[in-house]
Amino acid sequence: MRILAKYGREDIATVYVGETSKGSIVEFVQSVQPAIPREEKWVLIISTLKGCPVGCVMCDAAGYYKGKLTSDEMLEQIDFLIESYFPDRIVKVKKFKIQFARVGEPAFNKDVLVVLERISHYRNLIPSISTVAPCGCDEFFEQLLKIKQKYFEGRFQLQFSIHSTDEDKRNEIIPIKKWSLEQISTYGEKFVARLDRKITLNFALSSKSKVSAKKVAGIFSPSKFLIKITPVNPTYSALINNFESDVDLSSGYPVTHRAFVDELRKLGFEVILSVGELEENKIGSNCGQYIMKHIYNSAKMSEAYTYVSKIYESYL
User: Fold this and answer.
1) Quick one: which of 6, 155, 202, 211 has the fewest CB in 10 Å?
2) Percent helix, percent strand, percent coil in the chain, to nearest 5
């Protein structure tokens, strides 16, 4: 791995732009939670594709796609970060998470499954897959279930990005063919065993989102699924598509859709209000952000990517 650029803060998050041994340009992240030592919790976020063909309206990684990363290229990202902080490759971390969520829909790349098997030896590892559940990837999800059962029972984090319970609106936000909510529920019923973590259903809510707690409850079981509410992070794509966040950053509650959260809880669902460190927006390490989009965009955002703005001209 040849590092081309690095942005951020060691005490929050750092984003790396690198070139793999096969010449692919990738972005990957290491992050910690302020006030919690790295030895307690450490998160790595790696890319699985070169760009992304999905085109979610709030994601800056949308707009170009140059193919899949190989298993070795994904491992290069992981190995670089581990060796940078733990040169002996013994990761002394109580809660060690690797998220396949920086750039690319992981279900489009079967080599992700190879990587999961090859990193299964790390102690206290919690792998995390975030997906929109594309159609045509049934074999990927069936193999993922087997790998979870073999290596990661009780410590695998699976998230489906839903964003809306209205299928037309969901198609606007995620403009590819994907599993229905009913198909996601059916898979989740098989995936979550007695000791497993619940599957996360993520809603990045805008003021224009269409969501129904009753529809969620009619399809998903609170014993197998939990709900995560996240803000729409400041990205060029969200700005262009007029997809404004509905989440109050001080409380984590949606403004327009506050009743959605309250009703979900009344219906028995665990609801997580997930607002990360706001400094990560400035770093460009949050979900949906993509450093390369900022570097090559002539109109610079003022509320995000400001760490990159300060020094990017000296790099790529």
Assistant:
1) 6
2) 30, 25, 45
Dihedral over alpha carbons 263, 233, 17, 81 (to 10 degrees) = -40
Q: Over the stretch 39-60, which tens digit does the pLDDT of each residue have? A: 999 999 999 999 999 999 999 9
Mode of pairing for the β-strands spanning 199-204 and 95-100: unpaired
Q: At 283, list the tokens.
A: 């770093």
List, for residues 183-235, the tens digit of each pLDDT value: 999 999 999 998 999 999 999 999 889 999 999 999 999 999 999 999 999 99
Residue 15 tokens read as 């984003």
The DSSP H or E segment spanning 311 is helix 306-311
144/127 Cα distance (integer angstroms): 11
Q: Which amino acid is residue 83, in one-letter code?
A: E
Query: 102: which 2 tokens?
Result: 């920086």
Per-residue confidence (pLDDT) for residue 313, from 0 to 100: 43
Please give the structure tokens belonging to residue 159: 């998230």
* CATH number corresponding to 2-314: 3.20.20.70
Domain boundaries, the chain: 2-314
Instruction: Locate 277 and state its tokens.
Output: 């460190």
Residue 30 three-state SS? strand
Cα 219 to Cα 185: distance, rounded to the nearest angstrom:
7
Number of residues that make up the chain: 316
What integer pLDDT is reported at residue 214 of this predicted model?
Answer: 98
Q: Give the dihedral of Cα atoms 192, 193, 197, 202; nearest 10 deg.
A: 10
First to last CA, the chain: 16
